[in-house]
What does this fold into?
Amino acid sequence: MTHKANDVYVIGLGLHPATLREDGLRLEEMVYQTCRRALDHAGVSRAQLDNVVLGASDELDGRPITNMLLSAPAGGYLKDEIRVTDSGANALCMGFARIRTGEFDLGLVGSWCKGSKIDSETVMNLRADPFYYRPLGMGTRVANGLLAQAVMQHGVDENEVNRRVLAAYERARSNPRGLRRAVPPLGDLQDAPYEAAPLRQGQSAARTDGAVALILASGRFLNANRGCRPLARMAGAGWASDSYALGARRLGDFNSARTAWNKALAMSDRTSAADFDVIELESPTGWHEAAWVRVFGISDENVVSPSGGVFAQNPEFCSGLINAAEAVLQVAGQAGAVQRPVVRAAAAHSCHGFAQQGNVVVMFDRGGL
It folds into this structure.
């Protein structure tokens, strides 16, 4: 089969085994092993790469200019390497865009987060405005509580949120790439103390350590290297950021999520959520999932996060890129115990910032496979 020259395909991926706390490996070792897995899965060598895109946060890695230490383990030595600092999914969009220019043919996109080594709440508080938000104790928990209050205005209540959390745990328990934790009793969610009302502790996914890498190839590369078989085609990508200010309109309108979704839809030549067999959502809490289902117009709950999403594993900064890896595996028919039948198209969503200020959506299909 001949591929369009500038079409972008995922031809390999690597995931670090899910863990709450990785004490046996340095971050550099985690990154190296994950990127090595992705190259081996793709059947290509590091020497063949013409670019590397990294998604990493200095603060969450606990060091300044983190790619100075992690570029080489990720395969970036003497390569055209660039880093983005919003999220791992943003790095995927950058890798996609680079190949679409026609100037690159084979790239690695890698991201990681060792959240067990850093106090994420302190990091987010220090990112807050120093005069208004920081003295109020603004952090991920408070921002998520404010978002949950906004979601309530769309007819969502605690019963729906708890149902979604339990269903996510149930799906995650079957995912061989997740922690496979037991499903908590409903009473544990109903009686959990508030983190930031109306958000309760049991409604949030625990942070984990992890890393992920994807190998992207142009159609031109595949035409010249017939031994490489694509897993999925990247059909579209969209991203957007909203206002930093946490006003009622910004929290309740979900404009950046809508914009990212609609941009990706338009690029992929699809019209609605009904065109997808799988949609992996990044939902740090059950309130988030309730919001995204409404924002993206998802009517069939069976397509939502077969992997279990962040309730399977949640290395915070790169959880959205893990969603992309899960979507690719679904299209390729390689998702194992959580595989959905006949997946022709899959979407992956990611969010970042205070109360999900930024959103990314990437879409995959079987075009050219």
In short: The first helix runs from residue 27 to 42. The two ends are 8 Å apart (CA to CA). The chain has a mean pLDDT of 96. The CA atoms of residues 72 and 78 lie 9 Å apart.
